[in-house]
Amino acid sequence: MQLIDTDIAIVGAGGAGLRTAIAIAESNPQLKIALISKVYPMRSHTCAAEGGAAGVIKQDDSLDLHFIDTVGGGDWLSDQDVVEYFVNEAPKELLQLDHWGCPWSREPDGSVAVRPFGGMKMKRTWFAADKSGFHILHTLFQTSLKYESIKRFDEFFSIDLLVSDGHCRGVVAMEMKSGQLYRFNAKAVVMATGGAGRMFPFSTNGAIKTGDGTAMAYRAGVPTKDMEFVQYHPTGLLSTGILLTEGCRGEGGVLRNKDGHRYLQDYGMGPETPLGKTVLKTMELGPRDRLSQAFWHEQQKGNTIATRWGESVYLDMTHLGEKLINERLPLVRDLSITYAGVDPVTDPVPIRPVVHYMMGGIHTNIDAETTIPGLFAVGETACASLNGANRLGSNSLTELLVFGKRAAANAVQYAHGLASARNEAEIQAQADKVEAKVREIVQRSGGTESIAGIRKEMADSLESGAGIYRTEETLQQTCDTIRELRKRYRGIELHDKSNVFNTDLFQALELGNLLELAQTVAEGALARKESRGSHQRLDFEARDDDNYLKHTLAYYQGEDAPRIDYHDVVITRSQPGVRDYSGDGK
Amino acid sequence: MSEIQIELEILRYDPEKDREPHFETYAVTCQDDWMVLDAINYVKDHLDTTLSYRWSCHMAVCGSCGMMIDGEPKLACKAPVSNYANQKARIEPLANFPIERDLVVVMDDFMDKLKRVKPFVIRKEEKPIEEGEYRQSPAELKKYKQFTLCINCLCCYAACPQYALIPEFIGPAALTMAHRYNQDSRDQGLAERHDEVAAPVGAWDCSFAGECSEVCPKHVDPAAALQQLKIATTVQWYKGLIGMGGK
Amino acid sequence: MAYVRPVSKTSWYLARRSYTVHMLQELTSIFVGMFALILLWGISAVAGGPDTYQAFLDSLRSPVMVVILWVSTVVMFYHAVAWFSVTPKAMPIQRGEEFVPAGIIAGAHYAAWFVVSLLVLLLAGVF
What percent of chain B clears pLDDT 70, i.e. is strictly above it? Predict the structure, then answer.
């Protein structure tokens, strides 16, 4: 096993990982940074985010309003100290991106432009046409090339953390092109590996979103938090699940059922606003959980349009005009034409809700610390919790930046305070276990299961049992299925035994991670007997603050189902209230 | 649901087993709205799990799935199978790059060259964050916007005859990044990028075959950037002669 | 070991039709160069006095030269058209947020070509 000594190891080179790396390199250029990613940084899924990043900048907006929108949007499950810090830092981070060259869209006077976004009372979403995530990622990646202290390990597949004497001391990763295992010795590790949406059959997520980092921390003993809160984005293309940004609705796009009726007004988000004139935080600019839930109800009522790829509704942008669409939604137009054969300039686009984001993740606090000293986590892989029970669109891109910087500061401080002696024997023993685990999978023979088969069963089970609406029966069924699948996972045989770029092996490891996390989703949902944000129970329809105004923690129990526990929510100045997305009286 | 039959003739190469690459053919029944990537995923999931390739977003924005399809560099996620109905489609790794394994190419050369052109904002003096954003009018944004769209898929390198013949050539995408920053009103780094970009292996090895722009899936038009760079580097060279190089 | 696919240095341009067309376009520069040499020859002939100049004109009228000159003229036209069609890429002109359409830039080049040609013919006494 090769040994790499570094000061801070960052696993994941998307927006969060890159921001963390840059922050460390800027503040402490003498520290060695190992930036480890299973893909080249430009491939990270940050690139697929479209709509924008929220930060208060306009005169008529306030940090207070951003705070209120976020806490309410999260159905009061957000930790308010985290939200407070976030809204304060957001504008500075977005300005920093501008200084690094991000091509933000502009007002005529050259100042940064903002667009309306779901669940936000004021316009505060900075955007770069409809490729905001792509531009943010490339800006960060290209900026990171300035710093010699950032050493990248591209296409290294991280497998497990090394924890010794109760401290995180590094990570074991495989160089994908050679199969060679590397033991990274680090004083601090920052996990920034993204979410695990690929556990569902239909998502906006790319192939790489398999929750590797979340699973690694989970196996190392850090609990996951709030995993049952899975966001369905209201507007995904039918056959592929490709995302059509919330920005479509921010620019004035509307949702219609099979009768052409803008049905959201029937679900407490009315009154119907005039075409092309949005009233923020109402109708199509309501929060994502409410919009996806409205679709489900419309489907029950038979108001959706049947297509060969399932039920759908229409996202109608025909009234926006070609000029506006080409200027602000060019990617959306290209995607609709390429993948759905529909030009949004002339026709409504059939869409339906699609799994998009996981509010849950590695349990962290406001300082991005986990329960293991020396291990930090940022971004979708983490749960601070900024987003609570439902994330507002355009908060997550900003989250990467704000908490990337904060994690960097804390990781540096931790690394400086660390005594350098490490328990070599204990660490190498753990590394040897990882090697044995990999060897066992590769050399296993006589297997009867297929990766694709188990993956499909897991995904279908989650969709049917832990989808937008859940019941005790469906969730129990899913829990049982996942438990069974975890056992059958050990029956997978790899046909590819090569050391060179063995994607059979990588997919097997990814599936193992997904199965473990799927269990935290299903078990957490089963245990939460209330409805809140994106977790909706048909058998417990009301929000239950007395019993469930707390975070779900799931602790790894090896082969058994996770142990579920709870953790208080930090409430500072906003007591749980009613989420009102109607336009009445506003 | 209508279906399409295709045959994928895929190049395979495992350096631990093969001395040379060879082809294997797979028959796939596709849905009519599939892309070639969906067919390749089907092959991997159900026919041959040993097939290795890169992919992620399936929406032509991550740049992972560039490959040669019937000799044309394309994104597999944006190539409809309907174009190959009832035919054999030849799938090979991107041309002009060494083959790591199957459809996976070695990208190190591009990553080095990208770094060499200094693709980041360079300024003599940074404005403090407290003073807000750098003002940039919509017209100033438009000036370089097109060149920001590059997803680094490397289809342009696979198409470029000069890169095929001269491996030292910095190449379309990397040079376009230099030009993108040169054209950004917030950047002041043109002089600093000059030496790399004005070198023979920089913009001047480009013979304006224009293949790069033909194949670019994001319509970045790197060929235009490279010709503009030729003019810009010439101007900069003259400026340097009369002491206005601004270094 | 990574496998490097060989590229033929002598026949690479036959691999794709677009490469072959590109090389043919590049070859037109030979005719451009040749034309320039003939012009230089003519200038030096003028400098040599009326006899050398007449000798130069006589050689231009030989059957071989006539064929060469006609072929060169056709190739030069093709060269100019190909050049003008891509010139807009090298010189984008931005007016506010819009770029001047390529057709206008190319059109301006054709117009200038026409005007200059008229002037030359006038000076040569053709009109």
Answer: 99
Average pLDDT, chain B: 96
Residue A422 is predicted with a pLDDT of 87
Q: Do C90 and B96 touch (CB under 8 A)?
A: no
Best of B101, B165, B235 to disrupt the C interface (most C CBs within 10 Å) is: B165
CA-nearest residue to B188 within chain A is: A101
Q: Which of 3.90.550.10, 1.10.3720.10, 2.60.120.10, 1.20.1300.10 is the CATH number of C12-88? A: 1.20.1300.10
Q: Which of C97, A331, C95, A134 is nearest to B142 (CA)?
A: C97
pLDDT tens per residue, range A262-276: 999 999 998 999 998
Minimum distance, in Å, between the CA of residue B201 and any CA atom of chain A = 21
Task: Report whether pLDDT(B246) > 80.
Answer: no
Q: What residue of B is the nearest CA neighbor of C97?
A: B139
**Phi-psi map region of C7: left, alpha, beta (phi>0 left; psi -120 to 50 alpha):** beta
Question: Would the CB atoms of C2 and B165 count as touching at under 8 Å?
Answer: no
Candidates A45, A47, A56, A141, partner chain B, best to mutate (most B CBs within 10 A): A47
* Model pTM score: 0.96
Q: Which residues of B touch A42 (CB under 8 A)?
A: 62-63, 151-152
A–B interface: beta-carbon pairs under 8 A: 161
The owner of tokens 């949005």 is A278
Q: Is A319 a catalytic residue?
A: no
| pLDDT at A38 (0 to 100) | 98
CA of B161, closest CA in chain A: separation in Å?
25
**pLDDT for B153-210, tens place per residue?**
999 999 999 999 999 999 999 999 999 999 999 999 999 999 999 999 999 999 999 9
Cα–Cα–Cα angle for A561, A565, A567, rounded to 5 degrees: 145
The model's confidence at residue B245, banded by pLDDT at 50, 70 and 90, is confident
Give the up-direction half-sphere exposure of residue A131: CA atoms within 13 A in the CB hemisphere. Answer: 26
Residue A249 designated active-site: yes
Give the distance from CA B90 to its chain's centroid: 20
Domain boundaries, chain C: 12-88, 91-127
C16 touches chain B (CB under 8 A): yes
Interface contact B148, partner A, CB < 8 A? yes
B207 CB near a chain C CB, below 8 Å?
yes
A32 CB-contact burial (10 Å; exposed 0-12 / middle 13-18 / buried 19+): middle
Q: What is the ipTM of this complex?
A: 0.98
Residue ranges of domains in chain B, CATH in brackets = 3-105 (3.10.20.30), 108-241 (1.10.1060.10)
B100 contacts on C by Cβ (under 8 Å): 2
Q: Which of A167, A183, A249, A356 is catalytic?
A: A249
pLDDT digits (tens, 9 = 90+) for B136-146: 999 999 999 99
* SS3 state of residue A305: strand
DSSP A372-388: STTEEE-GGGEE-SSST
- Per the CB < 8 Å rule, is B44 touching A503? yes
| Of residues A297, A305, A239, A310, the one with CA closest to residue A264 | A297
- Chain centroid to CA A465: 21
Residue of B33, B51, B63 with shortest CB distance to A239: B33
pLDDT tens figures, B95-115: 999 999 999 999 999 999 999
Domains and CATH numbers, chain A: 2-230+357-423 (3.50.50.60), 235-353 (3.90.700.10), 425-553 (1.20.58.100)
